[in-house]
Design goal:
The complex is a heterodimer of chains A (221) and B (411). Chain A is mainly alpha-helical and 221 residues long. Helices cover 48% and strands 12% of the residues of chain A. With 411 residues, chain B is an alpha/beta fold. Classes of the chains: A mainly alpha (221), B alpha/beta (411).
């Protein structure tokens, strides 16, 4: 009998990274080469957990900075489309970002810089994870548990989990597989959710909608 | 003031409160002492007035101490404050001695409590040298900087830096304010208490009565700036802006602020604003008592547009207060105002009196947009700038400092 699904939650607090701020693309290239992987992870994957204004177009901080501070729309578009979860490692992501920056530097006749106050500063986060006391013993109970989850709990089990689990899977998929549900039509749909451009509330709703349909026979009973 | 988290449930939801209790479980019984330099007036005292009781409600043994000082001390710390925000002030050897001696006088009263605490949060520069005086300290000491330290006057910062370097961590309100320090620097945005007298829902009759008592005509547009009388808040610039707008619209302006005990310049700046207003019947420069929270609330709620035209700002709690009341904010393009005011979403960022006048005229002509932006601003604050988020980040930091600053901790 597989273990129960223990619902966890997490909270983060932002920590400043001790590398100088970025004023232009050459600075950005230099700093990207040396910034901690955790900082890259923060700027690409943890933005939804921070107290910031949700920009519907730019979910990673580098794209946001390129658009709103550097006013380079081309670069912003190229950075925005990078999906950090397609990379197996943070180093892979780092190389891809550096590629985009190098290409852009090569294209531009001159490198413009931003004013003081608009510079990009590297950050990372301290994350604390904790048990919520909520659990699901069998698949039929998972829907109820997801309904009660906070947005940060959804982030932990559906997004952050991809760093922890083999094959970069979310926790729900892993647990439902352990219960022999790998052939359910809903499993494929769960894996296909394009969460990168959703708010965490939207993501929670999407997962709930999927579980409430017949895609997962019997889960919503 | 609410001392129970339960009161916030209708606003933030059950799950947000449950999260706080779960995060605080491992900190139960911890002795936490907050130290600042004023019991009332200004953003820090306001934050501590809810944070300490709510930490207690979570099972943490939290308390709040205020250091005492005479007028000379507060003149020195005000100069330090101005220097840290970029003004080229001089700190003489005598000033330094006044500062250090006042901290020494305070430590006699506070030493036992501070040395026994598990966590000590020292707020702003005034009590910063207490750490060096508490040689028997056993807990973690955190320096909490609430001011805009992005471009400090170097001699003042060098002096303060020598005092804050030995801390275990520091907290800044904005990434831009962090400095080169040999310890982790956390970024925690401040927040507002939606249930205190400044922010609680008010009866329309109550608003009417308060606002009309200040001579405001409820039938004409009202612009309001609430802030201490401080040159960084640019009250004179706001009055200049008013004159530009009043040429085309029959607006009224209220500049309202109280003083804080640690701000000796307030009276002088108030007089400058009064002089600039020159008895104009539609400009109301109000020096309110420190406990005039309900009046401030009523003025913000009665406003058509709220201003915070600062030239330097730590975070600007009055912006979050106005957004929470569904008001569009015209804010100075500086400090934490940038984090709260987003053009065409929650308000407009401006750099000049002319820019502010332009945006006000635009908004007064676009009432529907103003309503939409007001609704968006309130939800933005609910998600990001209420005290529950603030408290959650403190608890996260405390868990981290206690168990080690690994990238991910299970508590």
């Amino acid at each position: 009998m597989p273990k129960p699904f223990m619902v966890r939650d997490c909270a983060l607090v932002i920590v400043s990274v001790s590398i100088p701020p970025v004023y232009d693309l050459r600075d950005l290239r230099e700093r990207l080469e040396v910034c901690p992987g955790e900082s890259l992870y923060h700027h690409f994957c943890q933005t939804l957990l921070r107290p910031t204004f949700d920009d519907p177009e730019y979910h990673n901080d580098l794209a946001f900075w390129a658009r709103h501070s550097l006013h380079d729309k081309t670069l912003a578009e190229r950075l925005a489309i990078l999906n950090p979860f397609e990379f197996r490692t943070l180093e892979g992501l780092r190389l891809a970002v550096l590629d985009v920056i190098e290409d852009r530097i090569g294209e531009l006749p001159h490198i413009s810089n931003v004013q003081t106050g608009d510079e990009f500063r590297f950050l990372q986060a301290l994350t604390v994870t904790f048990e919520t006391g909520l659990s699901a013993r069998e698949p039929g109970e998972l829907l109820g548990a997801i309904r009660q989850m906070t947005p940060s709990s959804i982030w932990y089990h559906f997004i952050e989990s991809r760093r922890r689990n083999p094959d970069h899977l979310d926790d729900f998929t892993c647990w439902l597989r352990d219960h022999g549900l790998q052939d359910e039509p809903g499993m494929r749909k769960l894996g296909e959710i394009d969460f990168y451009f959703m708010s965490l509330r939207e993501l929670q709703q999407e997962i709930l909608s999927l579980f409430e349909t017949r895609a997962f026979g019997g889960l919503s009973s | 003031m609410n001392t129970s988290l339960k009161a916030y449930e209708p606003i933030v939801g059950v799950s947000a409160l449950k999260q706080l209790r779960q995060l605080a479980a491992g900190l139960s019984g911890c002795r936490v002492v907050h130290v600042n330099s004023t019991p009332r007036g200004g953003g820090v005292a306001e934050i501590l007035s809810w944070m300490v009781p709510l930490m207690k409600d979570l099972g943490i043994d939290a308390s709040w101490e205020v250091i005492r000082g005479d007028e000379t001390f507060f003149k020195v710390t005000k100069a330090m404050h101005n220097g840290l925000q970029g003004q080229p002030v001089e700190m003489s050897g005598k000033d330094t001695r006044t500062y250090l001696e006042t901290n020494e006088a305070n430590v006699k009263r506070l030493r036992d409590k501070l040395e026994a605490a598990d966590f000590v949060f020292i707020h702003d520069p005034q009590p910063a040298s207490l750490l060096k005086l508490c040689t028997g300290r056993k807990g973690k000491w955190v320096w909490r900087c609430h001011i805009d330290l992005s471009r400090p006057h170097r001699p003042v910062w060098k002096f303060l830096r020598s005092l804050v370097e030995p801390y275990d961590a520091s907290i800044f309100s904005m990434t831009e304010f962090s400095q080169q320090l040999p310890h982790p620097q956390f970024i925690i945005r401040p927040s507002i208490d939606p249930l205190n007298d400044t922010n609680r829902q008010l009866d329309p009759h109550e608003i009417e009565a308060i606002v009309t008592s200040y001579g405001v005509d409820r039938l004409r547009p009202l612009l309001v700036q609430v802030s201490r009388f401080d040159r960084f808040k640019d009250p004179v610039g706001v009055i200049k802006m008013f004159h530009m707008v009043s040429q085309v619209a029959r607006v009224q302006l209220v500049l309202a602020g109280g003083g804080a005990e640690d701000d000796p310049e307030g009276d002088a700046v108030y007089r400058e604003a009064k002089d600039e207003a020159n008895n104009h019947p539609d400009i109301h420069v109000l020096q309110l008592p420190n406990d005039a929270h309900t009046s401030i609330n009523a003025l913000q709620r009665a406003a058509d547009i709220v201003l915070q035209k600062s030239t330097r700002e730590g975070f600007g709690l009055t912006v979050a207060e106005a957004l929470w009341k569904g008001k569009v904010v015209i804010g100075g393009d500086t400090g934490g105002i940038r984090m709260q005011v987003h053009n065409y979403h929650t308000g407009f960022l401006v750099n000049t009196a002319e820019g502010a006048a332009h945006r006000i005229r635009y908004l007064l002509r676009n009432q529907e947009l103003m309503r939409e932006m007001g609704t968006k601003g309130r939800e933005f604050v609910r998600e990001n700038f209420l005290l529950t988020r603030h408290l959650r980040e403190y608890l996260t930091l405390m868990n981290g400092l206690r168990k080690g600053l690994d990238k991910e901790l299970l508590v």
